[in-house]
Amino acid sequence: MRSIFAAVLVVLPTWAVAAEKARQPSDKPAAKPAVQSNPCAIYGAGFVRIEGSSTCVKMGGNVTIDVGTRTGR
Questions:
Q1: What angle do CA 45, 53, 61 make, to 5 degrees?
Q2: Coil/strand/helix, residue 63
Q3: Cα separation, 48 vs 39, whole angstroms
Q4: How much is the pLDDT for 56?
Q5: 63 — phi, psi (to 5°)?
Q6: 56, β-bridge pairs
Q7: Do the beta carbons of residue 39 and residue 55 sit within 8 Å?
Q8: What span, in angstroms and rounded, lies between the C-alpha atoms of 33 and 31?
Q9: Phi–psi pair at 48, nearest 5 degrees
Q10: What is the pLDDT, as a whole number, of residue 24?
Q11: Which helix (H) or strand (E) holds 48?
């Protein structure tokens, strides 16, 4: 009977420390999801979110060149 009581006295503090560590929040940051969805995809292809805001933009454009000649007749 004494040996069982002694074993409980040895194991109980170790178990209590382990339980307390399990309850404390971890110092490590939570892992980010591997794939982030594009919240601007609802507006169509090519829209991207401006970093640090909730604004979605799409850059685009074109270049036109006109060339003409005139004869002096």
A1: 40
A2: coil
A3: 8
A4: 92
A5: -125, 130
A6: 49
A7: no
A8: 7
A9: -130, 155
A10: 61
A11: strand 48-49
Residue given tokens 């799409």 in the structure block = 58
- In this prediction the pTM is 0.34
Q: What is the pLDDT, as a whole number, of residue 3?
A: 74
Burial class (CB in 10 A: 0-12, 13-18, 19+), 48: middle
Q: Give strand pairing partners of 57.
A: 48
Residue-wise pLDDT tens digits, 43-66 = 988 898 888 888 999 988 888 998
Q: Cα 24 vs. chain centroid, distance in angstroms?
A: 23
Give the C-alpha separation, 30 to 39, whole Å.
21
Backbone angles phi, psi at 27, to 5 degrees: -80, -15
CB count within 10 Å of CB 40 equals: 17
Do residues 49 and 39 lie in contact, with contact meaning Cβ atoms separated by under 8 Å? Answer: yes
Q: CA–CA separation, 46 vs 55, rounded Å?
A: 14
Distance (Å, whole) CA 2 – CA 20: 28
